[in-house]
Write a structure and sequence with these properties.
The complex is a heterodimer of chains A (250) and B (489).
Chain A: H1 13-30, E1 34-35, H2 36-43, H3 47-59, E2 63-65, E3 71-74, H4 91-103, E4 107-112, E5 119-122, H5 132-137, H6 143-150, H7 173-186, E6 189-192, E7 199-207, E8 214-223, H8 224-227, H9 232-249
Antiparallel strand pairs in A: 1-3, 2-3, 4-5, 4-8, 6-7, 7-8
Helix pairs in contact in A: 1-2, 1-3, 2-3, 4-9, 6-7
Chain B: H1 2-10, H2 28-39, H3 41-56, H4 60-82, H5 90-96, H6 101-136, H7 145-165, H8 167-196, H9 203-206, H10 211-224, H11 242-271, H12 285-292, H13 296-330, H14 349-368, H15 373-405, H16 411-434, H17 440-461, H18 463-467, H19 483-486
Classes of the chains: A alpha+beta (250), B mainly alpha (489).
């Protein structure tokens, strides 16, 4: 997404990088709502420099300006600086997932979408899913990742490159946009052979009760040709379980 | 502090006040094209130098240089806002964050007049040059009323469709059309300049200079050639990386248009250097130059390029116009329907369906009533220029006040405003005075009255709405990294 300047660091740039990181840290330390002047005073940085760095960090979405335009807070992109830790799952939630596993013969996985990343929090032990790094790096080729992308104002913020894994992989931005629009509308993501030619997945969102915020995704994985079928009963089952998970996760 | 931050995050809205538009959708080129087309350099390259030359004579290029610097300074003032907030209401929404609601309202009305009149003028201009092309093809008599009116209507229908179906589609069309027309213009002027090389005399030596006064008077029309360069500001919500692309698009447009104008002015000044009276004595300098060099095909390309540039300008200005209306509606000071967006296309469809037909109706009516086409174009351009100048003046005045309000004021913004505001004020007054006796003062006076009545009505009926104007794409809960969302238990 972001084109990085290929020129090596030189002159005053190392100091600028250090100052930018210090500004980020200062926003974390002072909490949301800290103003540019306060940051400049705390770091003893010249005001003009601080303002320029803040505008840069806002443009890059590591920081956001709060609605009063004075205060700053960490932006969603800052979440990507820390590796996502799989949060512990409550016994009640685990029971719901296991219940679904007992009813179907496919792999059942539960993933969290916190911090704008796909993190498996309950992968099916009998049907091991794809490598977690692939899930996090290429969300566009998995059903769970597609759910997350469909929720974004602009999916490009979370996609690094449209790499081709199989002949079914979607590699055109316009095609992916159209697909994600469909997913957002249906509340169901389907992926057939886009990561591995013979495998596919269905995924439904788990939304926080009341807020409607996307917190997790529940996926069923199986043979690609079976995933391609309409699977109405299975999807109904998934939606039931996603609904039961919602109060346990949000 | 930490407790504060929890409260601050809890108070964030769940949905942006300008929701419904295609948020974070447009790449840098699309945004850039919007601004370039707003300024329509291809059309101004052939039309403006001769107007500037009327006062500046052989120093025409100097007037353009000064105007370029002024445009860059205005761009800097706009950048103070656009680096910090993403809005759909262009300068209106920005001014609201610096000056009070009354001034912002004035800026909004001035922008509606500016965008509206420029869209009308651009539609008329495109129709005029299409008509010329038709005449060249031997398919009609020049200045035929039915042809002109039909052309305006057809172009307007095309513009409405493009604007309605999606911001990306219309941005792409604008980009393509403007790229072609500018390339055509650069080609034409390069050919003209190249063929003059043998006989070309450096102009400054041939005629005595016009003096500083002449250059200053020439700045007036030269600056008018830049109006519309801020058009990208209306795409704040729809740009993918607004804080980066919008300020850049505006500044680059000012710079590149300036270069194009300097190139065009130089070519024309040199081209007429050995003609008695120089460039100032001409009426249609570029076609004449082309004809003098025996290159009729150049004239055809020229007409095509100008027509395309005008159409792109109408489209870009039209989408800025509807976004100002949209923002005013979301602020609650214009009919609420204008704030509606199409569910699928994510464009302000009601504002488009109302405003663009009006923008086409006015020039179509004037042409149908028999007003000469060239006059329709020039009068509308004059009205547009006044609207823009008022809006620029207010936004430049608002910039340092905005920075002070958010506690980020430094010295340079104050200096820039202190320089640019008096100049813009003088330019504005000179512009109005120079057009005394033409319809402009009457039209402007009428519009001021309409604006004042609207403002008084708002003060009486909706004082709370008026006080709260300036909705922009503010940070919502989903944009913020909130540690409470992370821990799933």
């Amino acid at each position: 997404m972001t084109s990085l300047d290929p020129a090596p660091l030189s002159g005053r740039q190392p100091r600028a990088v250090r100052s930018a990181l210090a500004v980020l840290e200062e926003v974390v330390a002072s909490g949301s709502g800290v103003t540019a002047k306060e940051i400049s005073a705390a770091l003893k940085l010249p005001q003009a420099t601080t303002y320029r760095l803040l505008n840069l960090l806002v443009a890059e979405e590591y920081l956001v300006r709060l609605p009063d335009l004075r205060g700053f807070a960490l932006g969603r992109r800052a979440a990507r600086l820390s590796p996502a830790v799989a949060p512990a799952l409550s016994t009640a939630a685990r029971t719901v997932v296991d219940h679904l596993r007992g009813m179907v013969r496919w792999g059942v996985h539960l993933a969290s979408f916190s911090a704008g990343q796909v993190t498996l929090i309950d992968p099916d032990p009998d049907h091991p899913p794809s490598d977690g790094h692939v899930l996090a790096r290429y969300p566009q080729v998995t059903a769970l990742g597609k759910l997350l992308l469909a929720e974004q104002p602009d999916w490009r913020a979370l996609v690094r490159d449209l790499r081709r894994f199989t002949e079914f992989t979607v590699t055109s931005g316009a095609e992916l946009s159209a697909q994600l629009d469909g997913i957002a509308e249906a509340g169901l993501a389907r992926q057939c052979g886009e990561l591995r030619a013979d495998r596919g997945c269905l995924a439904v969102p788990v939304r926080g009760p009341g807020t409607g915020m996307l917190v997790a995704g529940l996926a069923l994985c199986g043979p690609a040709h079976r995933v391609a079928e309409s699977n109405e009963e299975l999807i109904g089952l998934m939606r039931d379980h996603a609904e039961r998970l919602a109060p346990l996760l949000a | 502090m930490q407790q504060d931050s929890g409260r601050i995050l809890a108070e964030l809205r769940l949905r942006s006040p300008v929701h419904g538009l295609a948020r974070r959708h447009l790449g840098p080129l699309d945004v850039f094209a919007q601004s370039v087309s707003g300024a329509a350099p291809a059309a101004a390259m052939s039309a403006t130098p001769v107007i500037v030359a009327a006062t500046a004579g052989p120093a025409t290029t100097w007037s353009f240089l000064v105007a370029t610097v002024l445009a860059l300074l205005i761009g800097t003032c706009i950048g103070r806002f656009t680096r910090r907030m993403a809005a759909a209401g262009s300068l209106y929404s920005l001014t609201a964050k610096g000056l009070g609601p009354g001034w912002a309202f004035g800026c909004g009305v001035a922008l509606l007049v500016g965008y509206g009149a420029l869209a009308m003028a651009a539609l008329a201009g495109a129709a005029i040059y299409l008509d010329t092309l038709i005449v060249r093809a031997g398919l009609g008599a020049p200045g035929s009323r039915p042809v002109l009116v039909t052309a305006v209507c057809a172009l307007a229908i095309l513009a409405v469709t493009l604007a309605l179906v999606g911001v990306r589609l219309s941005a792409r069309v604008v980009l393509l059309v403007e790229a072609i027309s500018i390339s055509l213009m650069v080609l034409i002027f390069a050919v003209l300049l190249g063929s003059e090389g043998s006989s070309g005399v450096p102009p400054a030596d041939a005629v005595p200079g016009p003096g500083l006064g002449g250059i200053a008077a020439g700045v007036l029309p030269a600056l008018a050639a830049f109006i519309g360069f801020e058009a990208a500001t209306a795409l704040g919500v729809e740009a993918r990386r607004p804080f980066q692309t919008i300020p850049r698009a505006v500044q680059w447009t000012a710079g590149i248009s300036g270069l194009l104008y300097l190139f065009a002015a130089y070519t024309q000044v040199v081209g007429f250097a050995d003609v008695p009276g120089g460039l100032a004595g001409q009426t249609e300098p570029v076609p004449q130059l082309a004809a003098a060099h025996g290159r009729l095909w150049l004239s055809v390309l020229l007409d095509l390029g100008i027509a395309m540039s005008f159409f792109a300008c109408a489209l870009a200005t039209g989408s800025a116009l509807v976004r100002v209306l949209f923002s005013m509606a979301r602020d609650g000071i214009a009919p609420a329907a204008f704030g509606a967006t199409h569910r699928r296309y994510r464009t302000p469809h009601v504002a488009i369906a109302v405003a663009l037909p009006i923008a086409a109706g006015v020039p179509a009516l004037l042409l149908a009533l028999g007003m000469p086409a060239g006059r329709v174009l020039s009068e509308l351009l004059t009205v547009a220029t006044v609207g823009y100048l008022v809006a620029y003046l207010l936004v430049c005045l608002a910039a340092p006040l905005f920075l002070r309000r958010i506690g980020e004021l430094t010295t340079p913004p104050v200096v820039v405003t202190a320089v640019i505001v008096p100049i813009l004020l003088v330019v504005l007054i000179a512009f109005v005075v120079s057009s005394l006796g033409r319809p402009l003062p009457i039209v402007a006076g009428l519009l001021v009255v309409v604006g004042a009545v609207w403002l008084v009505w708002l003060r009486l009926r909706r004082p709370d709405r008026l006080a709260g104007i300036g909705a922009y794409d503010e940070t919502v809960a989903a944009d913020v990294f909130d540690e409470r969302q992370v821990g799933i238990r």
